[in-house]
Amino acid sequence: MKPLAQIGMGMVLGAGAALGIAAARGAADDATYRQLALFSQAFQTVRDDYVEPVKDIDLIRNALQGMTSRLDPHSSYMDPRSYTGTFLSQTRGQFGGIGVTVTAEDKAIRVTATMDGMPAAAAGMKTDDRITAIDGKPVDDFNAAIDSMRGRVGSKVVLTIVRASEKNPFQVTLTRATVPVNATTYRREGDIGYIRMPGFNQQTADGLEKAVRELKRQIGPGLVGYVLDLRGNPGGLVDQAVRVSDDMLEAGEIVSTRGRNPGDTQRYDAKKGDIMDGRKLVVLINAGTASASEIVSGALQDHKRATIVGMTSFGKGSVQTIIPLNNGGGALRLTTARYYTPSGHSIQAMGIVPDIQVAQGGESEVSVVVRNSEAELEGHLAGEPLPPKRVEAPVIEPAPGKKYDDFQLSYALDLLRGNMTVATVTRPPKAPIQSAAKD
């Protein structure tokens, strides 16, 4: 918090006062306070001379965003609305709302999906309905509209709907309910339990434990094993990744985090007890598997608890700490550490390499090129050198003419049952992977 106080002092006292403070504290701080004086001068100039009046708070928040976003792709400043609204809802895994997915349109928001069992679906709202007003106020700002639809569970909200099949707009009154975010889902695939984990929030480990209990009950003693689907999982809370990993491991390190100083290193170990009773396990990953989901994949792979199937993961091997700012000023999302798998391997800018590379179809041509990955992001933290197996491993694809709804899942199910999947194996050409990174 000290740097914020210093910035504030520079702005209030002006350039001369800031330089005076620097002189009093000694030459070691002189360069820093000269830069703070420069910021103070720029702030005052924009405030006085910009073509339109600008609120001081907007200038400060923009400066905070610029300061953090230039550090790396994952550090940022969250204003109070972003922090208390969207971010905390995501991490808690639920919020008060009506259960719709929407996209922005001119002077409206369009419904792209409704969630089963939620107020919008129960009231008969449909895909492609256009919401033009909320509680009588016309929609003119997408983010504000999202905030208006959310609120205390049990409170009411009135939506004005335009539907193509109706001549006139009509109103729907909904009572907000608890809407889950990134909820873990599961289903029986014959003698195999399939568990889909789309993110890591405060409900994720509980969701896994419930899924395993229910699948054991549904399938019974003939249960062969499990598929844990982490494809497209962007990550989330590290403590939930640790707990999920712990649920499937009997002992050993799960992950370690190493920060700027040696004293910042933390190690997380598994406790005895595997909720899956040692049953066979396949974990599905792809280029959208990142961060916390890479912690889980890496731990299960290093301990040989699971077979990792799919395509190389995103490669986000950094830890972000949320640091609330004083006086309700939002929060910093700041990269504070790298994380390492039990073998001491950092996946930063490289990713988890599957035990068996299986493509949905068509990816083999680009499987050795860094695309849609951490290494592609400008300003990413440097990673380890790529191992030869990354560019030499074969990629399994569907056989020509063979149709699958989900080839990677079909392969995983066959693998657990000991069956042969109809597929073709291709070996991609070697290609150098180059990216500019900073230490």
What does this structure look like?
- The N terminus and C terminus are likely disordered.
- The longest helix has 24 residues.
- The two termini are 25 Å apart.
- The protein is α+β, with helices and mostly antiparallel strands.
- It is built from eleven helices and 21 strands.
- It is 31% helix and 25% strand.
- An eight-stranded mixed β-sheet has the order 10-11-12-15-16-19-20-21, with helices on both faces. Strands 3, 4, 5, 6, 7 and 8 form a six-stranded antiparallel β-sheet that branches. Strands 1, 13, 14, 17 and 18 form a five-stranded antiparallel β-sheet that branches.
- Strand 7 and strand 8 form a beta hairpin.
- The chain is globular, with a radius of gyration of 26 Å.
- It folds into three domains: 53 residues; 87 residues, PDZ domain (Pdz3 Domain, Roll); 242 residues, 2-enoyl-CoA Hydratase, Chain A, domain 1 (Alpha-Beta Complex), CATH 3.90.226.
Features:
439 residues, alpha+beta, Pdz3 Domain, 2-enoyl-CoA Hydratase, Chain A, domain 1, 3 domains, 8-stranded mixed beta sheet, 6-stranded antiparallel beta sheet, 21 strands, 31% helix, 25% strand, disordered N terminus, disordered C terminus
What is this structure's SSE topology?
Elements: H1 2-25, H2 30-49, H3 56-69, E1 76-78, H4 80-92, E2 94-97, E3 100-105, E4 108-114, H5 119-122, E5 130-134, E6 137-138, H6 142-149, E7 156-162, E8 170-175, E9 177-180, E10 185-189, E11 192-196, H7 204-219, E12 225-229, H8 238-248, E13 253-259, E14 266-269, E15 280-285, H9 292-302, E16 307-310, E17 318-324, E18 331-340, E19 356-358, H10 388-392, E20 395-398, H11 407-417, E21 423-426
Parallel strand pairs: 11-12, 12-15, 15-16, 16-19, 19-20
Antiparallel strand pairs: 1-18, 2-9, 3-4, 4-5, 5-6, 5-7, 7-8, 10-11, 13-14, 13-18, 17-18, 20-21
Helix pairs in contact: 1-2, 7-8, 8-9
